[in-house]
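Changelog note: in this version the structure field was regenerated for every chain. One regenerated record is shown below for reference.
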Amino acid sequence: MFARRIKRLFHQISLGDQSYRFMFEPPPDDDVVAFDCETTGLDVAKDDIVTIAAVKIRGARILASERFEAVARPDARMSAEAIKVHRLREADVEGGKLIFKVLPDFLHFVRGRPLVGYYLEFDVAMVDKYLLQLKGIELPNPMIEVSQMYYERKYGDAPPGTAIDLSFKAIVSDLGIPMLDQHDAFNDAMMTAMMYVTLKDMKERGVRIARARDSVRAPHGFGA
């Protein structure tokens, strides 16, 4: 976290295009943005974004009418594994704009708001790849990881060796969130927004997620 703050300060100082100063401005109180993107594969260096979506959240309200959706035409070929996941073929995205045309609109939508996501680090890394080329900086926005929020509410007080499930399906099920058609960027952003609002409310009320009788296995990290 400290390293990210240092990097943010560096990018703020080094930003050449002052018309993008808005990215470093404080957001409205209690405003965040849930976002998700679908890609041609899982290699940040080689793969490209094909769809990107976001929705604003203000306090406990998801502002479904304040949404961002875009299709981007990738340079990279779509991997067979990616097609199986999001069911987008190259023909489905060939009419999209180049990501460098999409990105400014996305940045103006997000502005300085914290970003909310499920395994957000990958999505941010994908955006950063293009933003570095476009403006020489990375996203300065604070990051809020819903799987970590969920972990804290369900497993934060668990005994060592407790079996941990941080899958998207497990979170949706535990929180009673409707399962929309997954691996659609906007649907995923909406479900992530619902996770965030629910978990934030639970934390504020001091409510934890009940666990079944703990089963024990070797501990592991936050992997999917």
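Spot check on this record: The beta strands are 31-39, 49-58, 61-71, 115-117, 143-145. The first helix runs from residue 2 to 14.
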